[in-house]
Structures
1.
Amino acid sequence: MFYRKVHSLGMQTKQIYTFGKYLQDKFGTKVHKTAVSISGFTCPNIDGTVAKGGCTFCENDSFSPSLDAVKPLKGFHLNLASNENPFLEKQLLQLEIQFNALSTRQRKSYDTQKFLVYFQSFTNTYAPFETLKALYDKALSFDNVVGLSIGTRSDSITQETLDYLVELAKTKEIWIEFGIQSVYDETLERINRGHNSANVKEWILKAKEAGLNVCGHLIFGLPGEDRAMMLETAKQAYEWGIDSVKYHPLYVVKKTALANEFARGEFTPIDEEEYLEVLNQALLMKPYHVSVQRITAGMDDDSLLAPLWCRDKNKQVRNINASLKKIGLKY
């Protein structure tokens, strides 16, 4: 059985297993992810190591933190071959400032008791090991932090870093998040991803064999993909053994290569009806134990070009739940 049964308004529905539920069950209290962005981190698809310009949908400036503690680091970028990091102390300070600010808001707004520090922006294993170790250890030293969630790419992590995360996982809740996006190499090439699907599979399997928790990111509506291809990506991701999943539609923002394709009529964004149909099927296919961390995404400012239905997140969730209700599910 894939879903926990609940009763709502006299009708039997099946509650989708969420990441929040997973954390609540494990720690017995509210646990939130606290997202941080560390200046100096970048991506091999941006710095020219595997490609230039980033993925076609990526607006690089949107990842730049704006805190005063970060401003001196502009123009400084790390990679796996960096021999030194003269700004490590500034990065550690930035980490502390961000965590303290956001965790305080989470406590006040949601009565959050414990936290996962979420290294979110850019590629958070794409730096020398000593830098990563210092940042991860610092994050785990904060009060009421029970673990880490680290967003990265499969071509940007070393065995040394993976082994260290395994060591941390002996006493802490450690997650690694890989951008899968698609299992089709022609799609990955078209979006300028910089690696193939085999590379993602390899590192997900390595992480799982080592005992780490893995979250996979999936994008529906990528250029050239039909419904069957989107669902095949979800199917294979489940088969690789991911423990959690994030789904979202591909949307177009200004200052991206995808925006240029959209302007030339070379890309048509996924419409809401199709997204809902694909999402429903992906959720029906999903093994129950794979928790769901996100079911949609969008932006509510003028940087969003299309599709416009991605502008209002609350409306998206309402429409998703209305659609799920028809198939006996609830988010």
2.
Amino acid sequence: MDLTPHLPALQVIVPMLSSPLILLLKPRGLAWAGAAAVALFSFAIALNMALAVARGNEFYYEMGGWQAPYGIALSVDGFSALVLLIITGAAAAALLAARPSVDQQIEAERQPLFYSAFLLALAGLTGIAVSADAFNIFVFMEISSLASYVLIAGGPDRRALPAVFKYLTMGTIGATFYLIGVGMVYMMTGTLNLADMEARIGDVTDINPILVAAGFITIGLALKAAVFPLHVWLPNAYAQAPHIVTVFLAACATKVAIYVLIRFDYFVFQANLENHALQFSTFLAPLALFGILVASAVAMFEGHIKRLLAMSSVAQIGYIILGASFVTTAGLTASAAHLFNHALAKGGLFLAITGLAYHYRDLRLDQLAGAARTMPWTAAAIVVCGLSLVGIPGTAGFISKWLLINAAIDNGDMAWLLIAIVLLSSLMALAYVYRIIDTLYFKPAVVAQAPGEAPMQLLLVIGIVAVANIVFGLFPSFPLALSSSAAELLLRHTL
């Protein structure tokens, strides 16, 4: 039996049905092995679909054979295939590396619950990426959010509770705004299917409710994506979450919200609303630029390494939003490529931080002084992923920043200002990455040196992700093919 046509459904069903089964695997090693196997299988499904999409195919699946809008439709194109690779790749890397860190941070009897919640978050995020229905996006958004709240609060640090409460509050407001906007579009069009919305909005005579809906949806998703200045929940959530949870969320959670924001706006609003592309750019481009500069400046002076990298994520989100705000093929290609490349760099950095945390419980920079002397491979991975984050040639991060600069050149009168901001922010990123490198390699140790490297299981995954940052910097054709396909698809809907 050929399962290929069913891959979009399997992408969600496999982790969702596996989540409650993991609870039955009481030995903690068995629970970890089951969750890691499911994540690897999910990654294999996503990779299979991405390869097919790169060859020019697309997937469209109607659950139960019911045609949309009466049934639930799932679709996978270049954009969603790229996002699925990010989600499932992050989950697979995090879970393969998870056991030493989870054993250290979470009690044995609670570990099956932890892995079950992890798979539920994976199912929710993949569901968002494959859904072709606005309300089902909301349902999967809530599934992933609720599981994420549990994961963040599940660590040993009590400071995670106020962090997760802020995350819950902001996430609930964002989801509510999104749902209000979707309800208003449904009121005017009578459908929740994205393709039908696009087709029917053009026939709406009173466009004002649609404009209001666009505002609610954009602000709601910007909250979920931590777009500056709506990012206040993110630093504490990343800093206080269990380390392996930070790896997963930093690599993909905000990117999925950005994916929905861009997809919804380009598919539904820009195709139908006069001058909406200009409104989209006017609203988001300044926020992106301020986010790039302000968050980079804060990161330069942050003393806790996880909070430093969290603020760096706010700046990198600014790059993604900036590319999308150009509303050009070059800008959207750069934006989609940076989704992928930032996930590689930031996922690798947080994996390496997980390795440091195995021996260094206090992750303030001053407490990590001299760590490279006893953890040379972990420190080397931080250097590689940090240089990718900066955008040094030969790394994945350089590719998307170069594409962004080329897209900015085509942006007319603002071109040189945009290029100057991108280059300035890259120098700021170099400054805070060098702070980390300087601390690890050149500062004298202030605490007793750790006995050795991170556990081999964790170190192998760190090494694979670090090498991937170089491989995709030297051979970027595959993610660029998906990024270019995503850009062409999005712009096709604006014509």
3.
Amino acid sequence: MAVRKTYLAVIGTALMLGGCSFSSEALWPTLAGEEETTQQNVVANQPVGADAITSYDVAASTEPLTGVSQTGTFVGTKVENMQQELNRLKSALSNHSNELQQLRGQTVAHSQAYHGTVAAISARLQVGTTPGNPVLVQQWNTAQAELDRVNDDIAALNSLANKVAADSTLSTFLLESVRSAYQVSGAVDEDHRQLALLEDETNRTTVLIDRLLNEISESLARQTSYVSTERANLNALALAVKNGEIFGDSLSKRVFQSQAAPASSGQRMAAAPSDRPLVVIRFDTASVKYEQALYNAVNRVLERRPQASFDVVAVTPNRGTPAQVALNANKSKRNAQAVLRSLTDMGMPSSRVRASDATSASVSANEVHVFVR
């Protein structure tokens, strides 16, 4: 008796009903001459989306094909060999799907540990602490190690992508072999019937492999972007720990906003004129705390103009002997380099900041001016 084909219908709206579950038959055609009914139960409190769909589909379609009838022909022998290859491919696909789910769970655990540590640092900075607090330094080192684990997960995802790409190559070769077998002479009708079933199963497996590859690619893109952003945030957090005060997110979050909504004409911020600096830092004492004010000013500019760049100018008083002016100029340049390093630590790309120096008769102490361009 011919095998009855029953396909699983997944109704999207049903997945959204909390506290409910549903079951449906999932019968895939086999080469055996008997009917099998497999009942799959999907619980509504499991993850809804690409992860759940992939695991479910792969589990439902990677059961090995069995029961190939031996016809004694050359094509019949080829069918048996190709069936074995398909079963190996299905087993590999199932293993790789499970590996993806394990990696996702592992990444979630590492990310939660990382954000928990960062939250503890931020909470302590929020209420105030001493500059370079050794407890916070240790916590920062722990956060960096936890983020490194997420980066290791990305490397594992890359390795998995290569394995699934090899599965894709094998499925393409197998499908071509099945189709070529139709042209071989000396086959009986039963051979072609089994070839048709084998072709259908290979097509389904190929679709699942492509879907798995797409999901891995999307996961890689998300995780790579996530780690890059958090690296910049960690750098900004290191500066905050060093100064004992919290700043905010890395400036790179503003700089690389690719989908920033265009500001209205009333909200656009014009570039600051060359004679009006955005920030003036006067280095008239041994220790000047300027980072928080600098961060706030630059962050406000980037909110309105994500593509803005900045000039850091070391301004030296044009007073005294030439030797005094030269000495002050060297100190002012070092101050400007410190301000530039602070900006890059806050997440500003070095390509968006340039340094220069100038002398002025209107200043009484070494200053660093930051301009928007």
